[in-house]
What we know:
The structure holds 2 protein chains of 2 kinds. By secondary structure, chain A is α/β, with parallel strands linked by helices. Chain A has 12 helices and 10 strands. Chain B folds into 2 domains: 1-41; 46-275, MetI-like (MetI-like fold). In chain B, helix 8 runs antiparallel to helix 9 (181-209). At the A-B interface, helix 2, helix 4 and strand 7 of A face helix 1 of B.
Amino acid sequence: MSRRRDAAPAPRRRLVAAVAASLLAVSVVAATAERATATARAQITVFAAASLADAFPKIDPSPRYSFAGSNGLAAQITLGAPADVFASANMTLPNQLHAKGLCSQPIVFTRNTLVIVVSKANPANVHSVYDLAKSGVKLVVAGPGVPVGSYTLQVLKNMNLTASVTRNIVSQEADVREVLAKVALGEADAGFVYSTDAKTVPGQVAVLKVPAWAQPKVQYGICVVSRSGNRQAARSFVARVLGRAGQTRLLAYGFLPRVKPSPPTSKK
Amino acid sequence: MIVATGDRGTLGRTAVTCVYIGMTIVTLTFLALPIAAIFAHTSPANLFDQLSNPVVRDAFEVSLKTSIVAQLLILLFGTPTAYLLATNRFPGHSLAVTLVELPLVLPPAVAGVGLLVAFGQMGLLGSSLDFFGVSLPFTQGAVTVAVAFVASPLYIRQGIAAFEAADPNLAAASRTLGASALRTFFRIALPVARGGLAAGLALSFARGLGEFGATIMFAGSLQHVTQTLPLAIYAEFDRNFDATLAMSGVLVLISIALLLGLRIGLSWQASASKRSSFLFGPSASS
C-alpha cells in the first residue's frame, strides 16, 4: 500500500529533480561564463594578420590572438566582434575602419616583401617568376580581398605577367598561411607569400625572389578598436609592438623596419 | 482526500504542460531566428539582383554540377551497398555499417585532411593517380569526391533501413517463382524500398550542397572551378555582404523545398501503402 503511494508521484519527483539539476547546470554555466568575461576584461583580444602568427605571441604572450586574413578580421570588427587591437597586413583595411570611426588612426608598424614559394619536389620546374606562366603550373594565391592576394596581383601587373600567370591560378585561399600550406604539402606547385612566411617552414619549400623593382609597398598597419572595453591595455600593446623590443622581435622574424631606411626615401 | 489529490494531479499536469509549451517555444524561436534574420536582411529584389552577379551564378553552377555527379555516383554505388548490408549478415558486417556511418560524425575538416593524404599529390593514392594522368586537388573532381564522401552515409543508411523494412517473403516468393536475383532486385526490392531511398537521396543532396570544410581543404576555392555556394558565401563575406545573404537565402530555400518535398512524399507514400494493404491485406491472409 505504502509502496504504491510512493510509486505514483515518483515520475513527478524525478521530473522535479531533472528540472532542478538542469537549473543548477544552467546557473553553473552562467557563472563560469561570467568569470570568463571577467578575465577577458583583463586580457585583451588582438585580431592580427595570419603572417604575424609567429612573431606577435613572442612580442607579448598575454593577449588572446585571432590570426586570419586581415580582410576577414576587418569584416568581423565591422560586424561587432570583440577585438581590442587590429593589426593588418595593409593600410587600406585599418584606414577604412578608421574612416567609419571603428578604430583609431592606424600606424605603420612593420613592412614585408613578397616571395614565391615552390614545393620541394618542384615537379613543374619553376625556377623564376617567369616560369609561373608555363602551362600546367599549379599556382595558389590568396583571394583578391586578402592583402597578400592584392599584393600578388600588383607584382604580376608590375611584371606584365597578369594574363599569362592568372590562367595558372588553381585556388584562391583565405589567408597567406593557407597558400603556404598548400605548397608545403606539395598539392600546389607554387604560391605567393611574404618572405617571413616562407621562413616558417624551412626545408619544406624553396624560395624564389621577386625582383625589387616589382615589389609592392607592403606596409602593416595597427590601430586600437574604438569599441574596445580596455583601450588602455590595447594602447600599451600597440606601444609594445612599436617599441624597441617589439621591433627587434619583428626583425628577427624577417620583417622590415617600419620606416624605410633613408637612401631610397631621399631618392624619391 | 481523493478529490484533493486529483486536483493536485491536474494542477501539476497543467504546470508540466506549460513548461513543455514554454520550452518548445524557446526551441522553435532559437531555430527559426537565424533563418528569419537572413530574409529580414535581404529583400527579394536583392536576391534576384544578386542572381545575376557572376560570382553567385558561377557558384550556383559549380554546386549544382558537382552535386548532381556526386549523387549519381552515390546512387550507383550506394544502392547495391545498402542492399547487401541490409539483406546479408557476414563477419565484419557491423564494421562495414560503422564505416558507412563514420563520415556522418566526422568533422568535415578531418574529412578534408583525410582526402588530401589519400588522394592528394603526396597522398597514398596520389602517385598511382598521377600515373594515370589524374590529379584531383583543385579540380571539380575533388569537389565531387568531397561531396560524395560526406553525403553518402545519409543515403546508404536510409537505404539499409528501407531494404531491411521490406518483407523478406516478397523476395523469397519472387525467387521461388523463378525470377533471377537481379530481376528480384529490380522488380521487388527496389520498388518496395523506393520511398526510403528517395528520402535518403534528398537528405544526401541537401548535405552535399552544404559541404564546406572538406571542399576548401581538398579542392581549394576558385570561382567557376571549385568555388561552390558555401565557399562563395565564405569568400564574399567581407567583400559583398549582399551576395553572401542572397546565396544563404537560396540555400535556405532549397533546403526547405527538399525537406517539405520529403515530408509530402513520405506521407503520400504512407497513405498509399495503407490503402494498398487494405486492398490486398485480406486476400494475402486468406
